[in-house]
Write a structure and sequence with these properties.
489 residues; alpha/beta; 7-stranded mixed sheet; 17 helices; 22 strands; globular
Length: 489
């Protein structure tokens, strides 16, 4: 018996087949091979075609079926992870009306600021746990004002994962975790936020049906099964945004536990056990995958949008031509901690919540033409991303979160010893690496939702730790470099 997980990212779509009895990933693949395009027609805009996600999913599915030789009838359930906060709009026939406005698009910012001023900070924070900010609900407000003809044709709005589930099952469903990404979940009422819907003038029936994170959310249609080479009737039993799903993938479910990723975006995501918030709303608060009103589990997230793009910009423009990311890590390691006084602030890819939606550009401070080297630049970029993480972690600590261990997958920037050592040393936390990813986590989530696993503990019994990084014996140079970096904010 096998479980199929999908991870719908903005860079690629990944599929993974997991043996339900052993927890082993028997096959995984991703498409496209090069980074998926993001359309940016104006500064601060970011869009993708939802049909492209479906095409990538088809290719990834075909690959894992071919390489594993698993019979489609032996796949017991499907789980979905997806890029958060995107806006997909469809008409009554289920046709996509325009390209999706995705997570790193910042055009919703002024609508969120206006809603905050009109509704009041107390109302927003106590009910949404956030200021309205730059989320799906405010992106829809932009569309309503600037593309009214398209808005009038909308039957339903969906998150990227809702859309993929719809393509699989024919059902348009979301869940409280998803609606908290929209900024349309009222934690006080434990229901959709009608006050926000009314404020923006959205019809009540524009939202999907509200279901659950774990549990059957529809079954594979005959048409979808033919396209994908899967068995009709296969249930979709789990769905969550990529960061809550990453935390699930790392078995981070209870208060005090923390997960992190550093790929396209950089994220630290910790769990608290109460419906609390940062009074300045510099971190995001979402319903975690196991949240209930009776037993709150709130994911507190700091997200640095400029993570992957800064790293790739350095590779294209600063690193020696033809060098690999592993080679960049080796070169950066020749520079000392603190990069000889060089500090890089990694903003520059849209509005940053931790800066209260201030859309700052990347900035470099402390270049000395006599001593600054290419290696310093490469190290300072990695340190700058870590220091942005730490700035968010300090806010979480102010909310009462204890930070002593950070769980991460062995991937992306966590492959860099500099990155791990700097994060461990500046935060005082031990970094624990695991051999997993979002697609594998989504597959395990599907097993929980289908009742194949009696509990998350059973689902993650086979999760394998593959390395740890403890803080350096002398953390003072890291702290000094961080304080210098913070002085430039």
């Amino acid at each position: 018996m096998y479980l199929l997980g999908y991870d719908i990212g903005s860079s690629s779509v990944k599929a993974a087949l997991v043996d339900a009895s052993t927890g082993a990933c028997v096959a995984s693949d991703f498409f496209p091979r090069t980074e998926a395009p993001i359309k940016s027609l104006q500064a601060g805009w970011a869009e993708q075609a939802p049909d492209a996600w479906w095409q990538y999913l088809r290719e990834a599915t075909a690959s894992v079926l071919a390489s594993s030789r698993v019979a489609p009838a032996d796949i017991a359930a499907i789980g979905i992870s997806y890029q958060m906060h995107g806006l997909v709009a469809v008409d009554r026939d289920g046709r996509v009306l325009r390209d999706a406005i995705i997570w790193c698009d910042s055009r919703g910012v002024p609508y969120g600021e206006r809603a905050l001023a009109d509704l009041g900070e107390r109302q927003c924070l106590e009910h949404l746990l956030n200021r309205p900010g730059n989320f799906t609900a405010t992106k829809l407000a932009w569309l309503k004002e600037h593309e009214p003809e398209t808005f009038e044709r909308i039957y339903k709005v969906m998150l990227p994962g809702d859309y993929i589930a719809y393509r699989l099952t024919g059902r348009i469903v979301t869940n409280p975790e998803g609606l908290s990404e929209y900024m349309l979940w009222d934690f006080a009422a434990d229901a959709p936020a009608t006050f926000m819907m009314e404020y923006f003038g959205y019809p009540a029936d524009i939202l999907p049906e509200v279901g659950t994170t774990f549990g059957e959310q529809g079954r594979l249609t005959e048409a979808a099964a033919r396209e994908l080479g899967l068995a009709p009737g296969t249930p979709v039993t789990y769905r969550a945004g990529d960061q809550p799903n990453n935390a699930l993938s790392l078995n981070v479910l209870e208060p005090g536990q923390i997960a992190s990723t550093a790929g396209t975006s950089g994220v630290v995501y910790g769990i608290i056990g109460s419906a609390d918030y940062d009074p300045m709303s510099r971190v995001n608060n979402f319903a975690h995958v196991n949240h209930t009103a009776a037993a709150p589990r709130i994911g507190v997230m700091t997200c640095i949008s400029g993570t992957g793009i800064l790293n790739s910009w350095m590779k294209r423009n600063v690193a020696p031509e033809g060098i690999s990311y592993e080679g960049i890590n080796d070169l950066a390691a020749t520079a000392p901690v603190g990069s000889r006084g060089l500090s890089i602030l990694p903003w520059g890819n849209g509005a940053e919540r931790v800066l209260q939606n201030r859309p700052d550009s990347c900035s470099i401070h402390g270049i000395n033409f006599n001593i600054t080297t290419r290696a310093d630049m490469l190290r300072a970029a990695q340190e700058g991303i870590v220091f942005a993480f730490m700035y968010g972690i300090e806010i979480m600590q102010q909310m009462g979160m204890k930070v002593d261990t950070i769980h991460a997958g062995r991937a992306n920037m966590f492959l860099s010893p500099i990155f791990r050592e700097t994060l461990a040393s500046v935060s005082g936390a031990t970094i624990r690496l695991y051999d997993t990813d979002g697609a594998v986590g989504a597959a395990r989530g599907a097993g929980i939702g289908a009742g194949i696993y009696a509990s998350p503990a059973e689902a993650f019994a086979s999760l394998r730790e593959v390395g740890t990084t403890a803080p350096a014996a002398d953390t003072a140079p890291y702290r000094e470099a961080y304080l210098r970096w913070k002085s430039y904010l």
